[in-house]
Amino acid sequence: GDSMTVVIGQYDFATSGVYQIEATLLAVGDVNSDNDMYLATTAINTFYESFEGTQFPPEHWSIVFGTLENTNFGNPVEGDKFYGAQPDQNFFGTVSDTIYSPRLEIEAGDTYSFYIKSSGFLEANNEVVWKDGVTGDVTVIQAVTAPINTWTLITLDISAAQGNNHIGITSVVPGSAPGYTEFDLFTSTANVHLYDQDLEIKNGDIYYL
Questions:
Q1: What pTM was estimated for this model as a whole?
Q2: Which partner from 3, 15, 91, 128 sits 20 to 30 angstroms from 136, CA to CA?
Q3: pLDDT digits over 34-70, tens only?
Q4: Cα–Cα distance between 84 and 76 in angstroms, integer?
């Protein structure tokens, strides 16, 4: 079929955040309007991840034991994919599951948000933690819970993790049965920290050929 490029021009998103942009085609005589709309998500000056890219885990993220799920296994909050934490207690011992964000430049008052959905059959306990970007030490921020089989938005103050550090969610099982929790659409008011040092030329000689 035909394709079309939609240019939204110099629209001013006055407030930082995650926005949905919807384009609808009004086709005269089209008897099937279900496929006449395209919905895209964009982040304005906001850290944002919903696992829709081709790389998993995404760049600068780290994951222990979790898996990438799609619409065959559930209903994502945004897009077609979400993250499934799968802690366990088995012959090999306790298998915890942790997903860590990239290093973030966290300042006082910054927040970290995500959607969470608990399983009614595979119970798990989940804690938001922060990991020191230099030493690797891990500190608990807060335990989080969610209604069963319902996506719930959690927003936490991460001021305790001030500095260039990672935010993570650790999942463990309360008993001997495996656990399962779904996560999607991670956002933060903190920016991604990419470099510990800036490259700067202090002085030098310039030669012309």
A1: 0.78
A2: 91
A3: 677 666 667 667 788 999 888 899 999 998 878 888 8
A4: 11
